[in-house]
Amino acid sequence: MRVSVLAVLAALTAPVATAQAGDATLASAGNWDLKRSDSDATREDACLLTPKTPSRIQVTRDKLVVTGLPKNAIFNYQYRIDDKPASTPAFPPSTMQSEGLIALDGDALTEILNGRRFQIRILDKWHEAITEDVDLSGLKDLHGKLAQACT
To answer: Which helix (H) or strand (E) holds 64?
Structure first.
């Protein structure tokens, strides 16, 4: 049983390393780096913001994306900004399911950019939890520089 648990953990962390590997760092602030990337998860965006610590989280001009999730296996997700109450559990649409990602935009992104800490808990269809917890210091400053640095 231990071998299979370790194999699952290795599989879940593999996309984290590839999401940040090989990208050129253009600027840094706080816990975040501004990187140039051609990642599939960001498609049209040439640049993205990533935490300096290993994470599945990437921020583009118009959304926060949690990448590297099991495709067609996300049951629901719930996020929390700072010490505010957690969001209502949400079921991802089929496009997010098929791509294996969670994307937050609009008012949610604005709240995240103004926050200090972001946590997201994702349950897969087997009710195994995937949790990300990141320090948001420096994110808002770098997000403001994103359009200038990556046109």
So the answer is: strand 63-66
> With 50 as the cut, is the pLDDT of residue 129 above it?
yes
Residues 148, 68: Cα–Cα separation, whole Å: 28
Q: Retrieve residue 110's tokens.
A: 């604005």
Question: Distance of CA 107 to CAs 65, 69, 74, 88, 98, Å?
Answer: 14, 23, 23, 15, 24
| CA 85 to mean position of chain CA atoms | 20
Sign of the Cα torsion 61, 64, 65, 66 reads positive
23-47 in b/e form (b: 16+ CB < 10 A) is beeebebebbbbbebebebbeebeb
Q: Write the DSSP string, 90-125.
A: BPPPHHHHHHT-EEEEHHHHHHHHT-SEEEEEEEET
- 8-state DSSP, 45: -
Query: Are the CB atoms for 102 and 77 separated by under 8 Å?
Result: yes
Q: How confident is the model at residue 24 (pLDDT cuts 50, 70, 90)?
A: confident
Residue 40: its pLDDT value, please? Answer: 52
Task: Specify the pLDDT at position 10.
Answer: 38
Average pLDDT of the segment spanning 9-31: 62
- For 20, the token pair is 């940040």
